Amino acid sequence: MAKKPKKETGCTFIGIGFSSIKRDELIRNIAIIAVLSLITKFIVLNVTTGLFHSFIDLFDISYYLQYAANIASGMMPYVDFNIEYPVLFLIPVLMPLPFALMTGDAMTYVYGYQVIMSLLDMVTAILVYFIALKIHENKSALFAGLMYATAFSAGYFVMTKYDSFPVFLLMATLFFTVYSMPVRGYISNVLAFFAKIFPALALPFILIFNSRKTSLKEEIISFLKVAIPVGIILFIPLFILKPDTIKTYLFATGYSVDVYVNTATYTIYSVLSATGLPLTAGSISLVMYALMVIVVLLILAFSYVKGISTERRLLTLILLTIFATVFFTKFHSPQYITWMTPFFALLLADSFKGVIMYYLVQALVYMEFPLLFNSFYTNLEYTSAPGTGGYTFIVAFFAVEYIVMLAAIWMVMKSEGKLIDDIRNALSAITGKTKGQ
Fold first, then answer.
1. Is 15 buried (19+), middle (13-18) or exposed (0-12) by CB count in 10 A?
2. How far apart are the C-alpha atoms of 422 and 306, rounded to whole Å?
3. Mind listing the pLDDT tens digit for each residue in 115-140?
4. Inter-residue contact 229 to 364 (CB < 8 Å)
5. Per-residue pLDDT, 256
6. 204 near 300, Cβ under 8 Å?
7. Mean pLDDT across the chain, nearest whole number?
8. Gap between the Cα atoms of 136 and 350, Å rounded
């Protein structure tokens, strides 16, 4: 009797092997995610202005257009005019320029930029889906891709800021990493750093994860083989021409800005000041920065001691580090939600409560900006005086927003296997050694 052929359970797509899904199902899911991603951007544009009578923020894009026009006129970026972002920021800035030059219309640049960034984010959604296939069964992986594609708050910032470009590069980094292409992952991570600083936060965890099969020393050497030549090409020439370009990388520390009112820092200050305690936002900020350093160092130490053996733990630890950086800092832009959205989509997709939490976070950040901006707060002040209803509302709103985000982080930690138990065991070991001494 002839043997029955084995049921096909895997496929190859774009040269990558997917072990648990058929090719036709994979392509169908990619198409659904891609279409939903684009539809979401269209809906966000129309609902924001039509239903909520709010605004599409073109402030940053107006600067992007000016930078592009300067370059088109023969000016040297960073030398003839200042730019506050790393050099690869110019890639999304220059991509819509040909359309504007052909029409001579500034709005063509705006529309071209929004279309290009929406298409780029569509690719990011597909990468999120591919990564999800490594940590979920097929149904939850599809949910993760769909959740990212329909992230309406992040979608707003995709069309108004450039953060979706470094987010794309970070997701490419993680895609290459979890599919065992570490060198390509390192290249993507270096490029992401030269687009915006925050993707560098992922590097230590990627090195530790990759060292499962080699050693940490070998992985550091592999990374440096990539980072040094790329750094020489992208940083040294501009630094020689204008040493002040180093400030492009220092701005991320927030050394030159005051405490923003939409930060957790200022929210804590606003709540505590109601008690009459003699506190300042600056003093609380110092404590928050100290906590940031402690938390990030503890995450790094935990990762180094315990190792990172699974893709899910890798994603979780990167999210915790990015969140800590955002939560404890004294300056804040709601667009930072784009940095965390792919991780929340990946790590909350396998439970109903997780999905609800995901969209609740999106809703709160969308309310924060654009719906409440200017009406209840600006970057550096609330628009209502203390003791008024408007003041009470906005303080309560930010308090609720950060509590919900902390709850989302806790839900991610609980869903990550033995992470909380491992943390408790590590703390117990440290405590035991301390008592023993």
1. exposed
2. 8
3. 999 999 999 999 999 999 999 999 99
4. no
5. 59
6. yes
7. 94
8. 8
State the DSSP string of 315-349. HHHHHHHHHHHHHH-S---GGGHHHHHHHHHHHHT
Residue 20 · residue 7 · CB < 8 Å: no
Lookup result for tokens 């209840």: 376
**Residue 371 to residue 279: CA distance in whole angstroms:** 30
Please state, in angstroms and rounded to a whole number, the distance separating the CA atoms of residues 270 and 122.
39
Q: Cα–Cα distances in Å, from 256 out to 84, 260, 261, 263? A: 12, 12, 16, 16
Least Cα distance to 129 among 112, 148, 103, 111 occurs for 148
Quick check: 391 pLDDT over 60? yes
Distance, CA of 312 to CA of 131 (rounded, Å): 10
- Our measurement of the distance from residue 25's CA atom to the centroid of its chain's CA atoms, rounded to an integer in Å, reads 29
Query: Quick one: tokens of 234?
Result: 């992208």
In this structure, are residues 342 and 148 in contact, taking their beta carbons and an 8 Å threshold? yes
Could you tell me what percentage of the chain is helix, strand and coil, using 3-state DSSP and rounding each to the nearest 5?
75, 5, 25
Task: Provide the β-strand partners of residue 17.
Answer: 12
Distance of CA 94 to the CA centre of its chain: 22
The phi-psi region of residue 11 (left if phi > 0; otherwise alpha if psi is between -120 and 50; otherwise beta) is: beta
For residues 20 and 434, give the distance between their C-alpha atoms in angstroms, rounded to a whole number. Answer: 47
Encoded amino acid at 284, one letter: I
Tokens of 18: 């997917």
Residue the block writes with tokens 């029409």: 103
Burial of 320 (C-beta count, 10 Å sphere; 0-12/13-18/19+): buried
> Encoding tokens for residue 211?
């060292």
| DSSP classification of residue 252 | G
Please check the confidence at residue 244 and state whether its pLDDT lies above 70: yes
Place of tokens 């940053």: 60
Q: What distances in angstroms separate CA 64 from CA 67, 121, 336, 370, 390, one per listed residue? A: 5, 18, 19, 20, 34
Cβ 215 vs Cβ 198: under 8 Å: no
If phi over 0 gives left and psi between -120 and 50 gives alpha, with beta otherwise, what is residue 387?
left
